[in-house]
Amino acid sequence: MKLLILNGVNLNMTGKREPGVYGVQTLDEINEEIRKFCLARGAECEFFQSNLEGEICTAIQQTDADGIVLNAGAFTHYSYAIRDAIASVHTPVVEVHMSNVHAREEFRHHSVISEVCRGTVLGFGKNSYLLAVESFLL
Ligand code: DQA
């Protein structure tokens, strides 16, 4: 099982931005934990982050992974392009958010990608990623 851990806009700022919401660990540190978590379960993983919507679409289209763990960041709430990219491939996608978006501003309550994702994990900080990985291994 090979998984693509895909992060969208502003996730490169994790650890620096809004630490009360997203924690103090950097994305590299979180990715290292995900890598070890996967390794311990016999899964392979690769990582990609971009602030560019089209690059996220291309990553979804071109991956040879068996599944995608996707935190699209704010793209989640308005990117029909990413939604369509997910719908255009057979690779299952699990949507992830570190924060509980439903307990935050109204504009975060709606995801335009949820409908085309296998499921959503949200509100567990960096553990949201690990739970999403686990969902592929059940
Ligand atoms: C986020 C939630 C989004 O609303 C926000 O724009 C992000 C991060 C999360 O991980 O909680 O950038 O996806």
UniProtKB/TrEMBL annotation:
Catalysed transformations (reactions): 3-dehydroquinate = 3-dehydroshikimate + H2O
Enzyme Commission numbers on file: 4.2.1.10
Gene Ontology annotations of biological process type: amino acid biosynthetic process; aromatic amino acid family biosynthetic process; chorismate biosynthetic process; quinate catabolic process
Domain of life: Bacteria
InterPro entries named among the record's database cross-references: DHquinase_II, DHquinase_II_sf
Keywords: Amino-acid biosynthesis, Aromatic amino acid biosynthesis, Lyase
Pfam families: DHquinase_II
Gene Ontology MF terms: 3-dehydroquinate dehydratase activity
Active site as annotated: Y22, H97
Pathway given in the UniProt record: Metabolic intermediate biosynthesis; chorismate biosynthesis; chorismate from D-erythrose 4-phosphate and phosphoenolpyruvate: step 3/7
SUPFAM superfamilies, alphabetized: Type II 3-dehydroquinate dehydratase
Site (Transition state stabilizer): R17
Residues holding substrate: N71, H77, D84, M98, S99, R108
Role, per record: Catalyzes a trans-dehydration via an enolate intermediate.
Similarity section: Belongs to the type-II 3-dehydroquinase family.
Subunit (UniProt): Homododecamer.
Protein name, per record: 3-dehydroquinate dehydratase
Organism (species): Candidatus Borkfalkia faecipullorum
